Every structure is written in structure tokens, then in C-alpha cells.
Amino acid sequence: MEYIRKQFRTLKERILEPRKFMQVLAGPRQVGKSTLVWQVLEQVSIPHAVEVADAIDPKDSDWIRRVWEAARMTMMLRSLDEYLLVIDEVQKIENWSEAVKREWDADTRNKVNLKVVLLGSSRLLLRKGLTESLAGRYELIRMPHWSLREMQDAFGVTLDEYVYFGGYPGPAHLMKDERRWRKYIKDSLVAPAIEKDVIMTSNIYKPALMKQLFELGCGYSAEILSLTKLMGQLQDAGNVTTLAGYLEILDECALLTALQKYANDDARKRGSIPKYQVYNNALLTAFRGRGFVADRTDTQAWGRWVESAVGAHLLSMADELDYELYYWRVPSRRKDEKDKEVDFIIDCGGELTAIEVKSGRRGMNSGLPAFVEAFKPKRSYVVGAGGVNLEDFLRCEVDALL
């Protein structure tokens, strides 16, 4: 039996409603967008066609008109009252949003009851046309990376397995064969994501640099490192502005982000040293892991995996729940004192939640009390020893934390 994600019900209900909006299913590669659509199609009786733009010439913008016209023709020949057109990987076609807008508006004017579902890659899809060309014509259904609860329910993974191998459903059965699992992540997931979802759909002038930055950034997940120092580990590094731009694109694709330090003003946030954070811990393991046993038994290493898992969990719903994620740190002025640091700060409409991860990586520091005194957050708590149980935290819905 296939696992049903919670977005299934939302998509099914909207497809069965009278035609008013296009439905856009957006999320990173290999989180189950196409699978979910097929699950819904098996449960509804609406005649449909599924078209995939993955192998189409990106410059063939007329392709969208042709598949749309074919759907209209099918409706007419079969004398159908309604029809459903699904277009997968729609963002691969240049100027796709203008073409979609033209056909959708034509159907609206002519009262053609052709419903439409579009599938695309995360926020990269949004930036490439939804918010401008298609404003007011669509509803967005976000598909984030899989949570611990979902991976446990679907595949029976343990907490430690989830922390280390992350939440990609495709290679879940390969966790016992780490070499094969790692090869799958790099060859079948990372390579297509970078080469197709990032490089082909963005202005990347140095593709090799983008790949190096991604791999290195994944390896530094949950660590704070300046772009200047990062440049020293890259070949043909370009400049800090180029790297910052590439990190923004990786963030839009829900792969890797650079968290800013929390501050009261935007200028100080933008000028801060970034803290790297993967959206899925599988990416940290693929590029930094030495092996499950070796890393699980290394207290300091495992602490970083745990912190990264907490960060990935918080990132997963940031877009859906409309909050920003930061870290906070104040360097110590004395050599015998540690920096005051809080691992994650959630800013939801001005209301702050401070989260400190306590694990084998390090003990509790004075950062959380200092942040509470300085910024008066709505909530503050520890995840791990002496605080909220890690498994309970990773299984919960993020909105319950706010």
C-alpha cells in the first residue's frame, strides 16, 4: 500500500471543486509530487491527461499551447463536460507562465471547463512566473521534505536513521547498504537537481563553482563560516557576491540555505556570517558522512547531525507558515569564555521563538538566557537532554511550536 501524504486530501478536494483556480503542486525533487498526483487521479473520475515537460526542448514554448489544445480537442470529441490537464516539470519551458496565462484566460472567456494542475520545483517555480504572470489565477500546494513522522509511518525508520539518512522516500530501503544509498543520493537526486532544476533554469555563469559550493555547503550544515573563508576552499571561487547569489538560488530550490544572524535591523542581518543548513540531512551525510556507526558513536559529530536535523525540520515549513529562521551568536571578549549562541531563532510576524539544541556536540551554554534577556521572545526552550524530547520535536507539526 502506498503512503498517502496529507496534501493528497487538499489536492483531491480542489480538483473536485468547480473550476476557478489552477492548482500548483510545488516542492523539491523526489518528495513525491508526481506520485501524489497519480494517487489522486486514481480516486477521481474526471477524464484527464498527464504531460511531462522534462524531455521537451526548453525553447519550445509552443509545446504548452499544443498539449492544451489537445486537451480541448479531447473534450470536444468525447463531448465531455469537464477535463483535467496535468503538466509536470512545467518550469523547464521558457516563458511557461505567459503561455499558461494565455491558455487559461482563453478557457475562462470561452467557458471551457478545463481544470489544470501544474507541478514544479519549489520556490524556483514561484520566482519564475507565478507571482507575476499568473497572479490571482492559482492556488499553491506546497510539498516539503518528508518529516520523521512520515518516514516512520511509511518505512519504519528509527530516529537515528532519520537523523543520519534524512527524509528522502526513494532510497529509504537502501539505508542498510550505505555505499549504494550514497551513490543514489549523489547520482539520482543531487546531480539532476543541480544540473536541471538549478543550472538550466537560472543564470549560472560558473556551473562548476555552483556544484562545488553546494557540496561544500552541505558538508558544513549546522556550522557558521564566512563566505570569505569558504572561498579559500573553492577552485575558481569568483567573489563573495557571486557565492551569495548562488546560495540564494540553492535556497529557492529547497536544497541548501545560509541562515543569517538575528538582529534588530536588516542591515546587520545581511552583513552577518552565514550558518549553513541543508533542507534534508541526507545531503549532509552524502557529502560529509564517514558511515553511520562511525558518526553515531562520535559524540561531537553526532551532535552536529542532530542540530542539522532540527534545522531541516524548522526549514521545512518556513515558507508555508510564513516565518523566517535565523541563528544568534555574540562572540566572547574573553578567551576563557565560550561564545553566547542560540541555534535557531524563529521570527513569525515579529514574535520570536528561541531554540537551543542540546546534544553530545556541546553542553548548554549561556546563550539562551542571554537572548531571552535581550529580546524577550514569546517562547524559548531546549531540544534534547533536559528539554523537549528530540523524537517528539521532530515528529511534531512546526506550527505547534509557534
SSE order, one letter for each helix or strand: HEHEHEHEHEHHHHHHEHEHHHHEEEHEH
- End-to-end C-alpha gap: 34 Å
- Main-sheet strand order equals 7-6-8-9-10-11
| Sheet with the most strands, sense and barrel status | 6 strands, mixed
Overall pLDDT level: 90
Strand residue percentage: 15-25%
Question: So what's the overall shape?
Answer: globular
Number of strands: 11
In percent, how helical is the residue content? 40-55%
Low-confidence stretches: none
Give me the number of helical elements: 18
Structural class computed from helices and strand pairing: alpha/beta
Radius of gyration: 22 Å
Would you give an account of this structure?
The protein is α/β, with parallel strands linked by helices. It is 45% helix and 17% strand. The strands form 2 sheets. A 6-stranded mixed sheet has the order 7-6-8-9-10-11, with helices on both faces. Strands 2-3-4-1-5 form a 5-stranded parallel sheet, with helices on both faces. Helix 1 packs across helix 2 (33-41), helix 8 packs across helix 13 and helix 9 packs across helix 13. The mean pLDDT is 90.
